[in-house]
Design brief:
single chain, three-stranded antiparallel β-sheet
Length: 234
């Protein structure tokens, strides 16, 4: 299991006890998932924990089920979808949008006014469209969505939460990303994955210790070479 998969598995352990937070997390999922249109919602994930979480999340948020679920015991990428027109209209209504008139998605900030709801929204965004690199290799976390306006607005949300992400575009997607261990650890602590945050900081400390030892060895070796050279001159 990759580090990113383990992070998502930990995030899926959190129970969506409050309906407002379930709605907010679902909102993040929808705006960062594979398809969120007037005709279909489609979420494709390789995370079995996320695939198991989604039906419970949507029941809590909207009182509805998916029209398509992955087969029991499915492996690899799993697909969950909704195509029923009434369900789609109800979901759009929940976010103050008109299913028949929405040309491009924007974040309705009224849905995520509370701190807990903002954290839930970002958790949903990461579960659906996020990834993080193994900190033993390098520090990199990103959130990717095909909706440019959503990415810009999510940038503002993260700023309000005390983060300073970078922005870029890749393969038609808008990305927000972090490359600092401390920022990535704080990100995971905020959205409910303190274990993942601890793993990142542990990896950072171990890297710094190895670098310190390497510098000390190099310095000692250099001093020894100078001492030998001086002795030879004498």
């Amino acid at each position: 299991m990759s580090f990113s998969s383990r992070a998502k598995a930990e995030l899926c352990q959190a129970r969506p006890d409050r309906k407002c937070c379930a709605v907010a997390e679902s909102y993040g999922v929808l705006l960062y998932c594979n398809t969120f249109s007037a005709n279909e919602i489609r979420v494709i994930t390789a995370s079995p924990e996320f695939a198991s979480r989604l039906p419970k999340l949507f029941r809590k948020a909207f009182g509805m089920s998916f029209d398509r679920l992955p087969p029991e015991g499915a492996e690899g990428k799993r697909t969950l979808s909704i195509t029923d027109a009434d369900k789609l209209s109800a979901i759009f209504d929940a976010f103050g949008a008109d299913r028949g008139a929405t040309l491009s998605h924007h974040i309705n900030f009224g849905v995520i006014e509370e701190d807990c709801c903002r954290a839930s929204f970002i958790r949903g965004a990461f579960l659906a469209g996020g990834s993080v690199t193994d900190p033993e290799k390098r520090y990199h976390l990103e959130l990717a969505t095909s909706h440019r306006s959503v990415s810009r607005e999510a940038y503002s949300i993260l700023l309000d939460m005390g983060f300073s992400p970078k922005e870029t575009e890749r393969a038609g997607n808008s990305l927000l990303y972090f490359k600092q261990a401390d920022a990535i650890a704080d990100f995971f602590t905020t959205i409910g994955a303190s274990g993942t945050a601890m793993d990142i900081m542990t990896a950072k400390v171990e890297k710094e210790m190895r670098n310190t030892v390497t510098r000390q060895i190099n310095c000692d070796s250099h001093n020894a070479d100078k001492t030998v050279a001086a002795a030879q001159e004498q």
